[in-house]
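We close this part of the discussion by returning to an individual protein. In the encoding step, the backbone of a single protein was reduced to a row of integers, each denoting a local shape. The sequence in question and its structure tokens are set out directly beneath this paragraph.
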Amino acid sequence: MLHDVCPSDPQLTFEHRLVMGDPSTEIVRIAEEERAELIVLGTHGRTGLSRILMGSVAEAVVRHAPCPVLIYRQNAGKLSTK
């Protein structure tokens, strides 16, 4: 499935990575290693009890990222940035 994810523009360079570990920690670690200029994440936009019980990868990334983070909430179609 990972190899099916490719940019529609063939001139864009990209790299597939499969990393084991805590998602937010690994996203931040790789962003630091690669000196990322921007992290783009999708979110379910959970609120209330479900967010407390399940946590939020997007929120953890926003709090610890070394660069701006663009969050896309699929249901609402709204964008917000760090």
Q: What stands out?
A: The chain has a mean pLDDT of 83. The chain has three helices and three strands. The radius of gyration is 14 Å.
